Every structure is written in C-alpha cells, then in structure tokens.
Amino acid sequence: MSKPYRPEAKAKAVRRRNRFAAVTAVLGVMFVSFSYYFYQVFFTPNVETKGRPTYVLIRKGQSYKAVMDSIDATNVIVDRLSFRFVAKLMKYNKLVKPGRYELKDGYTNRQLITDLRAGRQSPLKLTFQNIRLRDELARKLSTAIDTRPGQFDSLLSSPAYTKSLGFDTTNIMTMFIPNTYELYWNSSADNLMQRMKKEYEKFWTPARDAKRKALNLSRAEVSTLASIVEAEQQQHADERPRVAGVYLNRIRRGMKLQADPTVVYANNDFTIKRVLNVHLQKDSPYNTYKYAGLPPGPINLPSIASIDAVLNPEQHQYLYFCAKEDFSGYHAFARNEQEHLVNARRYQAALSRAGIMK
C-alpha cells in the first residue's frame, strides 16, 4: 500500500534545506570575512614612514605596554589596533627583547613583530671625528649606546681599567681609531670598549708595527705624534708626511717639538688663532715649547691618514715649518732657524694685516 501524500512533511524538509543553506552561506561569508581580515592584519603593509628612517628603542626590562606605547609614539603604524592584535596572537608580550629596531616602510604587522620577537636589531653606525678631549669622547660613546650617564667617564679615567686594556688614562684615546663602526645600541659599555680594543689590534697590522718600530716609537707615540700632525695640517692631507718628517727629524736631534697646536691644547682654549708669548708660558706637559719629547697623550683623535703619514714620513732635512702668508693652508718649510724666521715674519705680518691678533 502506498504512503499517503503529506505536503507538510515536504515543506519541513524544504525549510530544513533552506536553513542549512542559509547557515552554510552565513558561515561561508563569516569564514571569507575572517580569512580576509586575517590576511589583512597579518600580510598587508602597516608601516608608513614616508621616507623617514624610524627606530624604536627598547631598554632591558621595559614592559610590553611601554614598548607598545613607544611604537605608537613613532606615528608610523597605520592601523594600531590590528598591530596590537597581531602582537598578542604572536605572543610578543612574552618575548620582549631590548634593542634598537627599525620600523621599515612597507612592513606588515607580521614582519615587524617577527623582528621584535627575534631580537633582530638594526645596528647603528658610530663614527669618530673632531674629538679633542677625553670628556668629548666619553659623551660621544655615551650617546651611541644605552648606558648610564658618566659610565664612560669613569672607565676612561680609571687607572685600573685602562691598564687592563694596555693603556693609561693619558693615552687611552689612542685606542680609538677614527673610522665608522657598526654596533648594537644595547651593547654594554665594557663590550664597546673591548670592541674598540679589538679594532685597534686589527688596525695595527704587522706592516704598521714594523714601520713604527723602525722609527723607534710605540703605538701610542705614533698616534700622539699623528694628532699633532693632524692639528698642524687639517686642510691638505698630502702635506702631512712632510710635516711628520719635520717632527721626526727634531725628535732624532733631541730638539723640542715646539708645536703650536700643543700650546693651544695646553691652554685649553681652542679659539686661539695666533699663539702669543703668554700662551707659551703655560706650564703643562702638553706644552712642547717648555718640555722636550712628545706630550703624554694625543691632542685629538688623529685620522688613519695622519697615523699613516707618521709611519710613512717624507725623507728630508727640514727642521721648521710655518703657515704660508697666503692662508692657503699649506706651509713654508725651512732647514735652519734663519730661513724659518724669514717665513715666520711673513706669516705674522699677514696675520696683522688680516686683523688676527690672538
């Protein structure tokens, strides 16, 4: 016997299919929407620097919230909410690492968080130039890395610490070879000092050591003399080997160096343009008019070119030199005092005509 036709059962079946289709459609839309959002927050560029190099500095022990606030403060994160969402999903709050990180233009949330989690820092470049005094060097080093104020002052002025590196407090500056170095912002002060010692040893190749031994000079003495050569000839590096030759000739003959830059340094007045008799009276081991030999340490951080000028001096018989009266930056050289006095009078007259009296 056939079953009776029941239209209500068929209607229910249709409704069930429709509900299933509707639920499936809604779930499908939700899945697509979630997938799209997931893709957007993870893989769409979210850093916009507008060509401006941007970094975030994270100190040791800094909280996750403080890090997020620091990143927000850079104003380069386009969608901050999505960035924080991804940071939480990737558990960055449990993996904060100190350092200096670049927020690169076009970075996605995932790329940036991956760098931060991995401690993939952006190294900074440290360049030494135009440094005369130890406290200037200490300030330069302190601004390069995350260290407490005064730490480098303490290290550079510590007899015990400088001795551990093979120097003393008067010649420790010779350990710093002017160049550009890559290092990490969260390096410790001692690590930076050890790095500079390593670079110093690398600089002093067997060839350079052989040359300075032939001159009967220590490494520190070479750098100290190079600092004087550099101060004498700042404009024209091609003349430095000749200037170095003059001072080496005077050292061999037991003559005082009588280098004006050492007098300026001894007086601690770098505005001096014309060295006068009053300046020459300064009682200081750096005053090479009063004391024979090299000063106890450098009067600046000499460039590699100046160090090599001392190691490769021009061979000649000159014992004197004086700036040329044309203010070209070059010097007139002399073999004896009589010739030198003629050159000196010309230069002094030129200074007076220019109104340079001190």
Automatic annotation (TrEMBL):
Principal place of residence: membrane
Keyword annotations: Cell membrane, Cell wall biogenesis/degradation, Lyase, Membrane, Transmembrane, Transmembrane helix
GO CC annotations, alphabetized: plasma membrane
Family membership: Belongs to the transglycosylase MltG family.
CDD domains with a match to the protein in the record: MltG_like
Transmembrane segment boundaries: 20-39
Reaction equations catalysed: a peptidoglycan chain = a peptidoglycan chain with N-acetyl-1,6-anhydromuramyl-[peptide] at the reducing end + a peptidoglycan chain with N-acetylglucosamine at the non-reducing end
Membrane topology: Single-pass membrane protein
One Pfam short name: YceG
Subcellular compartments: Cell membrane
NCBIfam families, A to Z: endolytic transglycosylase MltG
Protein name: Endolytic murein transglycosylase
Functional summary from the UniProt entry: Functions as a peptidoglycan terminase that cleaves nascent peptidoglycan strands endolytically to terminate their elongation.
EC numbers for this chain: 4.2.2.29
Marked site positions, Important for catalytic activity: 232
One BP term from GO: peptidoglycan biosynthetic process
InterPro entries: MLTG-like
PANTHER family: ENDOLYTIC MUREIN TRANSGLYCOSYLASE
Molecular function per GO: lytic endotransglycosylase activity
Annotated source species: Hymenobacter daecheongensis DSM 21074
